[in-house]
Request: fold
Amino acid sequence: MKRIIDFLIACILIIILCIPMLLVALMIIIGLGPPVIFRQKRPGLNGAPFYIKKFRTMTNETGMDGKLLSNEQRITFVGKIIRKLSLDELPQLFNVLRGEMSFVGPRPLLMEYLPLYNKHQSRRHEVRPGITGWAQVNGRNNISWEKRFELDVWYVNHQSLLLDIKIIFLTVLKVFKKSDVTPEGKSFIEKFKGSNKND
Reply:
């Protein structure tokens, strides 16, 4: 049932938001140049990899050593606005349409994190990853990794249609308030480095 609802709502939203998405794409082309979409491999249901889609918000500038500059150095003014309004997440509607993601579920993180999770934290992959989730409406990027994973697993254990509706409602409020988008005093969240593997 959840998959059917996800599919139908994704179809409707893609139609409704096609003009705003085209405007964001135009902003990126003017401010950054092509490509418009950023694709990155992420773990989905049961850890199976898929390519998440986002609007691109950073340049591909490199330093003298040929390596990419830090995220803080590469993000543009336009990119900051897109991220602040969470518009960079809109292309994930197509991930939902394809069945790779759901509207609500634990956020899909990096593939490199998979071997770093303990057994309990790995349970976050027992459901499809989401555009938003329980952790996103309870602190988002201003809580520790351990707390975030605890909230993700809580969602896995308590998922229901009513809970999903509540999370979507709270997400809309968060977007309008522009709260918890980035950690206090930082532009980007620090990478997860692992927890106690025995937990």
About this structure: Residues 2-177 form one domain.
